[in-house]
Design brief:
- This protein has twelve helices and 21 strands.
- It has 421 residues and is α/β, with parallel strands linked by helices.
- It folds into two domains: 160 residues, Lyase, Ornithine Decarboxylase, Chain A, domain 1 (Beta Barrel), CATH 2.40.37; 172 residues, TIM Barrel, CATH 3.20.20.
- Strands 4, 14, 15, 16, 17, 18, 19, 20 and 21 form a nine-stranded mixed sheet that branches.
- Helix 9 links the parallel strand 12 and strand 13.
- The longest helix has 19 residues.
- It is globular and about 70 Å long.
- It binds ligand LLP.
- The site of ligand LLP has 21 residues, from helix 10 and helix 11.
Length: 421
């Protein structure tokens, strides 16, 4: 459920008409709903209670500091994968004890940054990383709390590019080597083992792969405890999928996911950590864009809009579907015809939808891409020298620009001409 509904013929974000935001900030822009973000966070906390738990928002899904602050103020932890994300979480006021540091290639600098500023745990993905962390922590005279990210060799049955738990994927430590590497971790100075971590992929629409992975985790918890390790936390990763269409998709609900976690892991007495990103932010955000031209090709019609692949990369990168709806509500019986919806970037890949049934929109009309709150703004680039687009946060009848649109001057001023020129 989200809070983007038509009221009086106009699409609103909560109580704010999107056309008012467009008039004020220009197009294109991202727009997030506070109410939806809060609701999605609450769904996870409800699903996991009464188990001791921490819901760590995956910052990679949406790293705007205002979004992080909204969630952090509700008690969310954060899952970060870079020094930049760590500093964003801190800038949002999230204390180090609620920040989990994940990622396959943490540098020594990033380790030092997080150890210095406070961190809940590092999810360590390899032996060399473990050794590096031991060195950094020992030099700083600090103990680094760690979980090892294990690769359970489970196929998440999702898009190949976002599947992470098969043995051919680059992530984690093969589960068969867990015993050996936990034993190594226990000996290393500056390292304190606190738990086990897994993350098998993103946009999972079936609970079975999660259950297969968590069953392996439960067995391993018992085994590692028998081997003398102190396993007090289980980090289950993120990955629960969302509906990208309003029609027939019905991925499992957080409550179903929570019930399965209770069943498989509930009797271990561990604190449960999860790292959802998409489910919290995805359907809490829209991308709003304006039609520049309607163009008749030989075989099909094109709607050329002012958003492009650099602003929302998912369709070009994963052939991902996003529902695209007119901001002015079509009347029943209005003509509908198939169009290709494309951006202005000079690549055929800059196509958001092919032969999509739409009302007969014309230049100046606004459209909204649904499910754009996760992996939207964060993946944007300035390709074709298109400045990053603004982000807006709505709260009931108010809205605020939480990242302004940079001017062309600002963009160009970042470049430097060498002295010798
Ligand atoms: N934890 C770890 C260690 C992850 O690698 C990820 C996502 C998450 C949590 C959050 O997963 P979520 O709950 O959001 O599914 N750019 C792609 C998605 C990449 C996901 C990468 N890792 C997309 O647009 O679909």
């Amino acid at each position: 459920m989200d809070h983007f509904l038509y009221k009086n013929g106009h699409l609103h974000a909560e109580d704010v008409p999107l056309r008012d935001i467009a008039a004020s900030v220009g197009t294109p822009f991202y727009c997030y709903s506070s109410a939806t973000l809060k609701r999605h966070f609450a769904l996870f906390t409800e699903a996991l209670s009464p188990l001791p738990h921490l819901v760590c928002f995956a910052v990679k899904a949406n790293s705007n500091v205002a979004v992080l602050k909204l969630l952090g103020d509700l008690g969310a932890g954060m899952d970060v994968v870079s020094g930049g994300e760590y500093l964003r979480a801190k800038a949002a006021g999230v204390p180090g004890e609620r920040i989990v540091f994940s990622g396959v290639g943490k540098t020594r600098e990033e380790m030092g940054l997080a150890l210095g500023g406070g961190v809940r745990q590092f999810n360590v993905e390899s032996e060399p990383e473990l050794e590096a962390l031991s060195e950094v922590a020992t030099t700083m005279g600090i103990e680094a709390p760690i979980a090892l990210r294990l690769n359970p060799d489970v196929d998440a049955k999702t898009h190949d590019k976002i599947s992470t738990g098969r043995k051919e994927d680059k992530f984690g430590i093969p589960i068969a080597r867990a015993s050996e590497i936990y034993a190594r971790a226990a000996q290393l100075p500056g390292i304190r083992v606190v738990g086990i971590d897994m993350h098998i992929g993103s946009q999972l629409t079936d609970l079975a792969p999660f259950e297969a992975a968590y069953t392996k985790m439960a067995d391993l918890t018992r085994q590692l405890r028998a081997e003398g390790h102190f396993i007090e936390r289980l980090d289950l990763g993120g990955g629960l999928g969302i509906p990208y269409t309003r029609s027939n998709e019905a991925p499992p609900l957080p409550s179903d996911y929570g019930a399965m976690i209770h069943r498989v892991l509930g009797d271990l007495g561990c604190e449960i950590e999860i790292e959802p990103g998409r489910l919290i932010a995805g359907n809490a955000g829209l991308l709003v864009s304006q039609v520049i031209y309607r163009k008749a090709g030989d075989e099909r019609e094109f709607l050329i809009i002012d958003a492009a692949m650099n602003d929302l990369m998912r369709p070009a990168m994963y052939a991902a579907h996003h529902d695209i709806v007119p901001v002015s509500e079509p009347a029943p019986g209005d003509d509908i015809a198939p169009v290709d919806i494309v951006g202005p970037v000079c690549e055929s890949g800059d196509t958001f939808a092919r032969q999509r049934d739409m009302p007969l929109l014309v230049a100046g009309d606004l459209v909204a891409f649904r499910s754009a709150g996760a992996y939207g703004a964060v993946m944007a680039s300035e390709y074709n020298s298109r400045p990053l687009i603004p982000e807006v946060l709505v709260n009931e009848d108010q809205f605020a620009v939480i990242r302004p649109r940079p001017g062309f001057d600002e963009m160009i001023a970042r470049d430097r001409i060498p002295d010798w020129m």
